[in-house]
UniProtKB/TrEMBL annotation:
The keyword Iron-sulfur belongs to this UniProt entry's keyword annotation: no
Stretches assigned to coiled coil: none
PROSITE patterns per the UniProt record, alphabetical: DHHC
Domain notes: The DHHC domain is required for palmitoyltransferase activity.
Domain Palmitoyltransferase DHHC: 128-286
Compositionally biased tracts (Basic and acidic residues): 349-362
Region (Disordered): 335-362
Segments traversing the membrane: 45-67, 73-92, 171-195, 246-267
Descriptive protein name: Palmitoyltransferase
Domain of life: Eukaryota
Organism of origin: Equus asinus
Record field: catalytic activity: L-cysteinyl-[protein] + hexadecanoyl-CoA = S-hexadecanoyl-L-cysteinyl-[protein] + CoA
InterPro entries: Palmitoyltrfase_DHHC, PFA4/ZDH16/20/ERF2-like
Length: 362
């Protein structure tokens, strides 16, 4: 007599007809290596464009408002190289996170023929997603935006217009880390810029703008007499006027502070998920049910692509490629416990359905 738990799942069926093969078309042939993955979601595309716009805005303010007009060339060159390198790595990580297949399960593989080829044994079941008609391996979850089941799905992030899953979690972690670093770097440079300019150049400039009519006329006379006029230029601190410069820097401060807090929190939660080998969805669903975890260091190495090396911080180096799913990876074992929360098959039903398969609609 076989016991099947029912307190987590619904609509348990034991007939191959449940699969409705006319609605589950066979999966297409595997895509060529390097095929671009892109989600056609209006909200996600808009968020991705906004992300790039904000990074490029910070790039504009840092270069043309703070660094290029600066008289300290060593300061400008060093900070310019560091900021541009971090910005490039952030945008590269964003592209990799957005255009990498996060670990989508083959669509439409829940066919009668495939289920029967698994040769399920007593106590074994397969989980079928009724939304994308796919058999869900362990730790896979369906994304309503991507319209696919994703292996080790953590969440769907509109800022990268993609799910964060098994294959692109490294790129998402790098994206949050580099955005947090350039935000912190920009805030520090803005602080130094405000202190320097208010103390020196802007003080003289504001005094120059308060010239009386008499002083202005004298300045014009001195100009006609080829005498050196009063210097009222702001090129030492910025190529823009003081009010425009202040507005640009305040907006950059607000953007940098907001993104520093947001990306730092996301970076921390992602690192915690990797170290505990538990995704955000699994943490929400787990409640009081313990789950076996693998070693934290092994999970980190698997996510970032092997032993610690500079490639961990390289968005052009991928994670460890998971092994292809075998037939056993599609099958899950049923726990024979909790008789109060189980459904019992009678001996007559076992005899009647001895050639059937166990499918759980999840």
């Amino acid at each position: 007599m076989m016991l099947i738990p029912t307190h987590h799942f619904r609509d348990i069926e034991r007939k191959p007809e449940y699969l409705q093969p006319e609605k589950c078309i066979p999966p297409p042939h595997p895509s060529p290596v390097g095929t671009m993955w892109f989600i056609r979601d209006g909200c996600g595309i808009a968020c991705a464009i906004v992300t790039w716009f904000l990074v490029l805005y910070a790039e504009f303010v840092v270069l043309f408002v703070m660094l290029i007009p600066s008289r300290d060339y060593v300061y400008s060159i060093i900070n310019g190289i560091v900021f541009n390198l971090l910005a490039f790595l952030a945008l590269a990580s964003h592209c990799r996170a957005m255009l990498t297949d996060p670990g989508a399960v083959p669509k439409g593989n829940a066919t009668k023929e495939f289920i029967e080829s698994l040769q399920l044994k007593p106590g074994q079941v397969v989980y079928k997603c009724p939304k994308c008609c796919s058999i869900k391996p362990d730790r896979a979850h369906h994304c309503s935006v991507c319209k696919r089941c994703i292996r080790k799905m953590d969440h769907h992030c509109p800022w990268v217009n993609n799910c964060v899953g098994e294959n692109n979690q490294k790129y998402f972690v790098l994206f949050t880390m580099y955005i947090a670093l350039i935000s912190l770097h920009a805030l520090i440079m803005v602080g130094f810029h405000f202190l320097h300019c208010f103390e020196e150049d802007w003080t003289n400039l504001l005094q120059g703008y308060r010239l009386t009519r008499k002083e202005t006329a004298e300045a014009r006379i001195s100009l006609q007499g080829k005498k050196p006029p009063l210097k009222v230029s702001s090129t030492e601190c910025s190529s823009f006027s003081p009010p425009t410069t202040v507005i640009l820097l305040i907006l950059l401060c607000f953007e940098g502070l907001l993104f520093l807090i947001f990306t730092s929190v996301m970076f921390g939660t992602q690192v915690h998920s990797i170290c505990t080998d538990e995704t955000g969805i699994e943490r929400l669903k787990r409640k009081n049910q313990p789950r076996e975890h693998t070693g934290s260091w092994e999970s980190v190495k698997e996510t970032f692509g092997g032993d610690f090396s500079p490639n961990w911080f390289n968005p052009f180096s991928g994670p460890c490629h998971p092994e292809p799913l075998r037939d056993g990876d599609w099958v899950r074992q049923v726990t024979l416990s909790d008789t109060d929360n189980t459904e019992t098959m009678t001996e007559s039903e076992e005899g009647k359905d001895k050639d059937s398969v166990e499918v759980i609609d999840e």
